[in-house]
Write a structure and sequence with these properties.
- The structure is a single chain.
- The protein is of the alpha/beta class.
- It has 13 helices and five strands.
- It has a five-stranded parallel sheet with strand order 2-3-4-1-5, sandwiched between helices.
- α11 crosses α12.
- The chain is elongated and about 60 Å long.
- The two termini are 28 Å apart.
Length: 296
C-alpha cells in the first residue's frame, strides 16, 4: 500500500482514486478490467438487447447481427451486458421468491464462442458448458441438441449470443450451409432470438443467404473518428486510469497521437493506454505522455 497525498488523483473519480493506494503495477492491472465507458454505440446495442430480452418467445424470432472490424468493442459490450443481465435477474428472483428456482438455474442470457468451421457438435458443447451441463463426447449432435433445447427452456433463457461468428466461415461451403441450417433450427425450436457477432465478412455472407438475410436485423460498430467525440472518450478514460497526475488525454496533440496508435479502435486504444499507464507507474512519471505512446 502507498500513501495518497491530498493533491494526488484530483482528476479521477472517487472509486478510481482509491486504487492509488495499491503498490506498483497492481494499481493498473487490478483496476483495468472494471474500466467501462458507456458511449453512444454501446448504449444503442444494449438498448436493442434489452428489447430482445423482453420479446415473448416466437416460432420465428427476429435475430440480431452485430458486426464490424476487429477490436471495435463488440465482444466487450456483449460480455458486460450478458453478465449484468444474468446477475440482475438472479438477484431479483432471489429477493422476490428465494425458493422459485428449484433444481434449475435462472440464466436469461447464454453467451458462447462460435466453433471453427461451424462444427455442430462443438457448438452444442460450448452452450452446454456455458450452462454448467457438459455431456460426454460420445453423445451424438442430435442428443446434445435435445439437451440444449431442454436446458434453454428450463433455465428460462431469453437470448443466445454466438460471438466470433466468423469462425464458422473457415469451413467448406457445404459445412457453412449446414451450420446455417443448425442455427436457424436452434432459434426456431427454442423460440428465442440469436445475437451473432463477428467481423464485416459475416454480414457479406449473410446477405448472400436469403433466409439468414431476412432473419437478422443489423447493427454495425465502427472505429472512431479523430473528432470531438474521440476527445470526449479520452477524457472519460483519463478519469478511470489510476495515475496520480493528469495526462490531458483529450488535448489535440495527445488525442491525435492516441488516434494514430489505435486507428480509432476502442479495443486497441484500451491496450495502448494500459501499457502506457504501466510505464507511467514504473517510471514514476505518474502520467501518460506522447513519448510513451510513440515508444510502445
Amino acid at each position: 500500500m502507498t500513501d495518497i497525498l491530498p493533491e494526488d488523483g484530483a482528476h479521477l473519480t472517487e472509486r478510481t482514486r482509491s486504487y492509488l493506494a495499491l503498490a506498483g503495477e497492481d494499481r493498473i492491472l487490478q483496476n483495468w478490467s472494471s474500466i467501462w465507458i458507456g458511449h453512444d454505440s454501446a448504449q444503442k446495442v444494449q438498448a436493442r438487447l434489452d428489447m430482445m430480452l423482453k420479446t415473448p418467445p416466437s416460432a420465428r424470432p427476429k435475430n440480431l447481427l452485430i458486426y464490424g472490424e476487429s477490436n471495435v468493442g463488440k465482444s466487450t459490450i456483449l460480455e458486460r451486458w450478458a453478465k449484468a443481465t444474468n446477475a440482475a435477474a438472479v438477484s431479483s428472483l432471489d429477493a422476490e421468491t428465494p425458493d422459485a428456482m428449484g433444481d434449475w438455474a435462472y440464466l436469461p442470457v447464454v453467451q458462447v464462442q462460435t466453433p471453427p468451421k461451424g462444427d455442430e457438435g462443438w457448438l452444442y458443447d460450448n452452450i452446454l458448458r456455458a450452462m454448467g451441463f457438459p455431456l460426454p463426447v460420445s453423445y451424438s449432435p442430435a442428443a446434445k441438441c435435445r439437451t440444449v433445447l431442454k436446458l434453454l427452456a428450463n433455465n428460462q433463457t431469453k437470448v443466445v449470443i454466438l460471438d466470433e461468428f466468423h469462425n464458422a466461415l473457415s469451413g467448406r461451403f457445404d459445412q457453412r450451409l449446414h451450420f446455417n441450417v443448425v442455427i436457424k433450427n436452434l432459434t426456431n425450436e427454442a423460440g428465442i432470438p440469436l445475437v451473432v457477432a463477428g467481423i464485416d465478412t459475416v454480414d457479406l455472407v449473410f446477405r448472400k443467404e436469403d433466409q439468414l438475410h431476412r432473419r437478422f436485423s443489423r447493427i454495425k460498430l465502427e472505429a472512431w473518428d479523430d473528432n470531438a467525440d474521440w476527445r470526449k472518450l479520452l477524457r472519460s478514460f483519463e478519469r478511470l486510469i489510476p495515475l496520480k497526475r493528469p495526462s490531458f488525454l483529450g488535448q489535440p496533440e495527445m488525442a491525435t497521437t492516441l488516434y494514430e496508435a489505435s486507428c480509432g479502435r476502442i479495443g486497441d486504444l484500451s491496450d495502448v493506454l494500459r501499457e502506457a499507464a504501466l510505464v507511467a507507474v514504473s517510471s514514476g512519471e505518474e502520467r501518460i505522455t506522447p513519448d510513451m505512446i510513440q515508444t510502445l
